[in-house]
Amino acid sequence: MMREHISFDTIARHYRDIHDKNIHWSGASSSDYAKLKIQILARYEINETKEVLDLGCGDGLSAFYMKQFFPSWKLTGVDLSAESIAVAKERGIADAQFFHADGLDLPFQPQRFDLIFMAGVLHHVLPQQRAQFLSEACRVLRSSGTIYIFEHNPYHPFTQYAVHTCVFDKGVQLLSAKAAKRLLRDTGWQIDICKYLIFFPRYRVLQPLIRMESFFGAIPLGGQYFIRAYPRDSSVHCFPN
Asked: What is the pLDDT of residues 43-102, one digit of tens each?
């Protein structure tokens, strides 16, 4: 699934420290950004019983925050890095299980999950395998389910700098929101939302601007973007906005 999955095994227990050093100039930590994605998720989802797949879960930190915001969710994490899965299991997250598996061939029955979460994963998948990766995700999601994808915006200069100077992002090919939406449509998905986020460094003096970021979602200048989509064949979705 991933271009450099062996390197993730070697850095799994130091991933957050490495990431913190890489983005120290941004005014926030790796954990802060992981939590931010779940806070955004909480704008659209509620705490009700759901089977949730964290696809490319890494060291399980996103799952840790998901359980804080959505204690009723039953979480399943999958990652190609066996050592990252070991770290995730050590977190002892209630109602969460983690599997070492390839996202191109997931060990689950069709329509197993209600929701799929992917944060910073797709750019680690080889471009020629991304269609298969997303098709496989569609296979294991219920027809009434939803996928949330968070990715780097390749047109943001600070994002480009962070990626080019990060040891575990070496050689990756970022994809724009436009490219991601096209890829999703080609693999059986219907796009519901696409918004940009993280427009400003996370310094306290900029808090008034940071609080306004939710109003800037249509402007393609954020450091990252997220997409919400659902299986195209489904006719049961009626999302609140």
From this structure: 999 999 999 999 999 999 999 999 999 999 999 999 999 999 999 999 999 999 999 999
- Identify the CATH number of the domain in which residue 130 sits: 3.40.50.150
**pTM surpassing 0.85?**
yes
Cβ burial of 171 (10 Å; 0-12, 13-18, 19+) is exposed
How many structural domains is the chain composed of?
1
Q: Which domain holds residue 76?
A: 5-231
Taking CA atoms, 83 is separated from 89, 101, 108, 130, in Å, by 10, 12, 21, 23
